[in-house]
C-alpha cells in the first residue's frame, strides 16, 4: 500500500499545476484583452496596414516567436495523446499516465502564456474605438466571456473532472478498483474517442469575441480554432448521449437531499 500511496502526491501536484494554469489561462485569454492589459503604441500612425506588416521585422519576429510557442503546445498536446505514446507512458509510469499528460500540457501552456510576445503596433482586424461602441462592445464581450467560462466549468463537471485530471485513476488504483475507463459504457467510450475537447464552442467564443482583434490575437485565435476543429468528430449519436448525460446530472442536482427539512 505504501508505494501506491506515493502516487497520490504526484497526482495532486499535477492537479494543482493544471488548476493554476487554468486560472492563468482565463487571465490570458479574457482579462488581459478585455481590461486593456497591453498598452497601445504611438500616435495616429502607430498601427500599420497588413501589407506593410509583412515587411516589418518588428512585427514578423514576435509573430514567428508566438507561432513557435503555439506549435510547441499543439505538438505536445497532440503527440502525447497518440495511442503509441500513451502506451509507452502507461508502461513506464503506470496509473500516472493521465496525470503526466495533464502536467506536461499545463507546462506547455505556461510557456505560451509567459513568453507570449504582443504586437501592439501591428494591424487590427477590428477595433471598437468610437462611442458608443467603445463602451458597449467591451461590456458585451465581458458578459459573453463570463457565460462561456461558466459553461466550460459546467461541462467539465459533466465530463468527470477528476478523471480528466488523472485523480480518479490514482484513487481507483489505490483502492484496487481497476481502471475507471473499464467501468464506462460503450457509448461513453465511443464519445471519448471522438471528442478530445468538450468545450469547443465556448473556447471559440473566448478566443474571437474581443473588442480589439490585433495581429497576435488573430494568430492565437486562428491556430487554436484550426486545432479545435480538427480534434472533433462528433455525430448525432454522440450528441444524443451528451444530452442524456446532462439531463441525468441536472436531475440529480435538482433532487431533494435526504434528510432535508420539510
TrEMBL record:
<feature type="transmembrane region" description="Helical">
    <location>
        <begin position="100"/>
        <end position="116"/>
    </location>
</feature>
<feature type="transmembrane region" description="Helical">
    <location>
        <begin position="136"/>
        <end position="159"/>
    </location>
</feature>
<dbReference type="InterPro" id="IPR033580">
    <property type="entry name" value="Nurim-like"/>
</dbReference>
<keyword id="KW-1133">Transmembrane helix</keyword>
<protein>
    <recommendedName>
        <fullName>Nurim</fullName>
    </recommendedName>
</protein>
<keyword id="KW-0812">Transmembrane</keyword>
<comment type="similarity">
    <text>Belongs to the nurim family.</text>
</comment>
<dbReference type="GO" id="GO:0005637">
    <property type="term" value="C:nuclear inner membrane"/>
</dbReference>
<feature type="transmembrane region" description="Helical">
    <location>
        <begin position="59"/>
        <end position="79"/>
    </location>
</feature>
<keyword id="KW-0472">Membrane</keyword>
Amino acid at each position: 500500500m505504501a508505494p501506491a500511496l506515493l502516487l497520490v502526491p504526484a497526482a495532486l501536484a499535477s492537479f494543482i499545476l493544471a488548476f493554476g494554469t487554468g486560472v492563468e489561462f482565463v487571465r490570458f485569454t479574457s482579462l488581459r484583452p478585455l481590461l486593456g492589459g497591453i498598452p497601445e503604441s504611438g500616435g495616429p500612425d502607430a498601427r500599420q496596414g497588413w501589407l506593410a506588416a509583412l515587411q516589418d521585422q518588428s512585427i514578423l519576429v514576435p509573430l514567428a516567436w508566438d507561432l513557435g510557442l503555439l506549435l510547441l503546445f499543439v505538438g505536445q498536446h497532440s503527440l502525447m495523446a497518440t495511442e503509441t505514446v500513451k502506451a509507452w507512458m502507461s508502461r513506464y509510469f503506470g496509473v500516472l499516465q493521465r496525470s503526466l499528460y495533464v502536467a506536461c500540457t499545463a507546462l506547455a501552456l505556461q510557456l505560451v502564456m509567459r513568453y507570449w510576445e504582443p504586437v501592439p503596433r501591428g494591424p487590427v482586424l477590428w477595433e471598437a474605438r468610437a462611442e458608443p461602441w467603445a463602451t458597449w462592445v467591451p461590456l458585451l464581450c465581458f458578459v459573453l466571456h463570463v457565460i462561456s467560462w461558466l459553461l466550460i466549468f459546467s461541462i467539465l463537471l459533466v465530463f468527470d473532472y477528476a478523471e480528466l485530471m488523472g485523480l480518479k485513476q490514482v484513487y481507483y488504483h489505490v483502492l484496487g478498483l481497476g481502471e475507471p475507463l473499464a467501468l464506462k459504457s460503450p457509448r461513453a467510450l465511443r464519445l471519448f474517442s471522438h471528442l478530445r475537447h468538450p468545450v469547443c464552442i465556448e473556447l471559440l467564443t473566448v478566443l474571437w469575441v474581443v473588442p480589439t482583434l490585433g495581429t497576435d490575437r488573430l494568430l492565437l485565435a486562428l491556430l487554436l480554432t484550426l486545432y479545435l476543429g480538427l480534434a472533433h468528430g462528433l455525430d448525432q449519436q454522440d450528441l444524443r448521449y451528451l444530452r442524456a448525460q446532462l439531463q441525468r446530472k441536472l436531475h440529480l442536482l435538482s433532487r431533494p437531499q435526504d434528510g432535508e427539512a420539510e
